[in-house]
Design goal:
Elements: E1 2-6, E2 9-12, E3 17-24, E4 33-38, E5 45-50, E6 56-58, E7 67-72, E8 77-82, E9 91-98, E10 112-114, E11 119-124
Parallel strand pairs: 2-11
Antiparallel strand pairs: 1-3, 3-8, 4-5, 4-9, 5-6, 7-8, 9-10, 9-11
């Protein structure tokens, strides 16, 4: 079971990025996939979670159009679209499943377990 995050980089404040999370070793549609981030000096934070049949769950307190999650089952990839980025959005973003892996998004994002390396997002002011 592996989830590989990619698409990070350096972006100016106000810009946008789309991160990708590609799954291998399991059937993507069978499980809930979450995006989380770890910012410098802060604890891990849940952003969004997506399921095949039960919709999405938002953990981050932000306007809905700043962070959106989507999935392309054929490409085995979950996306995180980020808009109007702020310097405080800087951090390592990674995707995860629960342990054990489940179909539903957890109410508490602390139950997510990282399944691979994250991708670094740096937002300059």
């Amino acid at each position: 079971v592996q989830l590989q995050a990619s698409g990070g980089g350096l972006v100016q404040a106000g810009g946008s990025l789309r991160l990708s999370c590609t799954a291998s070793g399991f059937t993507l549609d069978a499980y809930a996939i979450g995006w989380l981030r770890l910012a410098p000096g802060k604890s891990r934070e849940g952003i969004l979670c997506i399921t095949q049949y039960y919709g999405t769950t938002r953990y981050i307190d932000s306007p809905p159009d700043r962070f959106t999650i989507s999935k392309d089952s054929a490409k085995k990839t979950v996306y995180l679209e980020m808009n109007n980025l702020l310097p405080e959005d800087t951090g390592v973003y990674y995707c995860a499943t629960t342990e054990p892996m489940g179909r539903l998004c957890p109410q508490d994002p602390q139950f997510f377990v990282s399944r691979g390396q994250g991708t670094l997002v740096t937002v300059s002011s």
